[in-house]
Write a structure and sequence with these properties.
Strand content: 5-15%
Oligomer: single chain
Number of domains: 1
CATH superfamily: P-loop containing nucleotide triphosphate hydrolases
Strand order of the largest sheet: 2-3-1-4-5
CATH architecture: 3-Layer(aba) Sandwich
Shape: globular
CATH topology: Rossmann fold
Distance between the termini: 12 Å
Bound molecules: thymidine-5'-diphosphate
Number of strands: 5
CATH class: Alpha Beta
Length: about 220
């Protein structure tokens, strides 16, 4: 039996639950995304695991361009929101309407953080794009992996093929981090701030706590 929305969330009308993960490159969210998906599946949820930019063939093509072709901040913002539009229409909304749990590795907050904070695209332009593209859709819960840019840079140092964003300097990532925190200040109830400087085990505990706080009983195995 599949689990529908564990508690009334913003996606209640649609039936499903929408969780996004955010953070600067090197924050270490990937293993925890996989662990959360596995934990939710074990507790009976039907999980759709996806990512941005990407998640559809068209959006993955746009991802390739955004990550590897130089472009100005507005072009970049239009490209990531175009990718997001296709992803939301074809994957995210249909899954939520089926009552599934969508876990998305990055979503609109990343555009505010990277195109806005990092590259200087005006906040108001991003807000306009968000309103057009999302038509009110927001994650029920966003887990923001927060850590200083210096620490994230040390963790990224081992990465073999940095993309256009990963090769930016520490100042860029401090601006990205600040923009993420501005998004938290603008809508605090949607976010759980995860201290990504802790050990992986402690971080995983924080992730579980944030989910259980919102949806008690979530992540418990089905009898
Ligand atoms: P990510 O999938 O986290 O990278 P990786 O595959 O290396 O783990 O994210 C890809 C990059 O895209 C990341 O540097 C952030 C950037 N990005 C934006 O600039 N704007 C956006 O709207 C999104 C979703 C991501």
């Amino acid at each position: 039996m599949s689990r529908t929305s564990p508690v009334p969330g913003r996606q209640e009308a649609a039936g499903g639950t929408f969780i996004s993960f955010e953070g600067i490159d090197g924050a270490g969210k990937t293993t925890h995304i996989d662990a959360l998906a596995a934990g939710l599946r074990a507790s009976g949820a039907e999980v759709v695991l996806t990512r941005e930019p990407g998640g559809t063939p068209l959006a993955e093509s746009l991802r390739e361009l955004v990550l590897h072709q130089p472009m100005d901040a507005l072009t970049e913002a239009l490209a990531v929101f175009a990718a997001r539009r296709d992803h939301v229409q074809r994957v995210i909304r249909p899954a939520l309407q089926r009552g599934q749990t969508v876990i998305c590795d990055r979503f609109a907050d990343a555009s505010f953080a990277y195109q806005g904070g990092g590259n200087g695209c005006p906040w108001a332009v991003l807000q306009q794009l968000e309103a057009w593209v999302l038509e009110g859709l927001q994650p029920d819960l966003t887990l923001l992996f927060d850590l200083p840019a210096e620490e994230a840079a040390r963790r990224r140092a081992a990465a073999r093929h940095p993309d256009r964003f990963e090769s930016q300097d520490t100042d860029f990532f401090e601006r990205v981090r600040s923009a993420y925190l501005r998004r938290v200040a603008e809508d605090p109830s949607r976010f759980a701030l995860i201290d990504a400087q802790q050990t992986p085990a402690d971080v995983w505990q924080q992730v579980q706590n944030a989910c259980r706080q919102r949806w008690p009983g979530l992540l418990s195995p089905q009898p």
